[in-house]
Amino acid sequence: MRLGEYIDKELVLPELASTGKAEVLRELTEALAARHPGVDAGLALAVLLDREGLGTTGIGEGVAIPHGKLACLERIILCVGRSRKGVDFDALDFKPCTIFFLVLAPEQMTGIHLRILAHISRLLKDEHFRKDFFDAKDRDALFALLQDY
Fold first, then answer.
1. Could you tell me which residues come within 8 angstroms of residue 39 by beta carbon, excluding any fewer than 6 positions away?
2. What digits encode the pLDDT tens for the residues 92-135?
3. Catalytic residue among 36, 67, 113, 119
4. 67 catalytically annotated
């Protein structure tokens, strides 16, 4: 499995403007909806906020992997964002999150959805990858980095 198969360059957001958890989720879902007109940004946001209500997807070390399922999807889609300032995302280690991997999947694709989440989680545990991600100068550099994984 390679993340490059699921990542659209236009959905790599190198400079998130949002400063709060709900705002980051809104910014990411609006970008997804703009690129995928069949996705309702409001519904996607509601699904993600419901999931956050079950427990934070801020896994620590500056990383959050918000995720959810939408019936309208035919395939898994990702949106990747970076916040240089950091966002209070209620992370497990109580530190601000700077790296965001949003994963939305069709309801019937549980297996691959879980494999992608596990792959992203393993990747983001790598301190060198996180540093390279944070230090990438722009969208092109971030996208190129993600293509290798």
1. 29, 32, 33, 70, 72, 73, 77, 104
2. 999 999 999 999 999 988 888 999 999 999 999 999 999 999 99
3. 67
4. yes
